[in-house]
Amino acid sequence: MSNTNHVTLAAIHRYDLGVIICKSCNEVIATLPTDGYKKFYSLCNSSICIDKNKEASK
User: Smallest Cα–Cα separation from 4: which of 26, 33, 32, 37?
Assistant: First the structure.
């Protein structure tokens, strides 16, 4: 389950409706100014997430 509840309200006030979420730990990495609500997935800089992604790609 993602942890975007605290970011969603702040993003609406700044018109940053795009959210970048870590695909490994579901933490919000950043928000982006977009025309509507959009979710993008990437990896955060956590060593745990990077190591997990390396193991999955083997």
Answer: 26
One-letter identity of residue 48? I
6 vs 52: CA distance, rounded Å: 26
The pair of three-digit structure tokens given for residue 5, joined into one six-digit string: 């509840």
pLDDT along the chain (58 residues), means of 10: 54 75 94 91 94 88
Helices (H), 1-58: 5-14, 47-56
**How many angstroms separate the CA atoms of 23 and 17, rounded?**
18
Which tokens is 42 given?
A: 């990437």
Q: If you ran DSSP here, which 8-state letter would residue 25 be given?
A: T
The model's pTM: 0.68
pLDDT at 1: 47
